[in-house]
Amino acid sequence: MANLREESRRFRTRIPERPVSLMVTPLTDLGINHVREMQRMGISAIALDSGSLAAVRQAEGNVFRDIWKGVYQVVIVSPERLTTKAMDDVLRSRSFRKHAGAYIVDEAHVVVPWSVDFRDAYGDVTRALSRLPPRIPVLAMTATLTKALEGKLLTQLNFRRGTYTRIRRSTERTNLSMIFRTLSHGLATAEAFPQLAWIVARKQKIIVYAHTIDLCFRIALYFWSLLPLGDERYRVVRMYNSVLPAGVNEATLESYASDPGSYILVSTIKLSLGYDLRNVAGVVNVGCPTTAEALYQQGARAARAPGTKGFVMTFVEPGLVRAFQKGTLEM
Question: Where's the Helicase C-terminal domain (predicted)?
Answer without folding.
Answer: 192-331
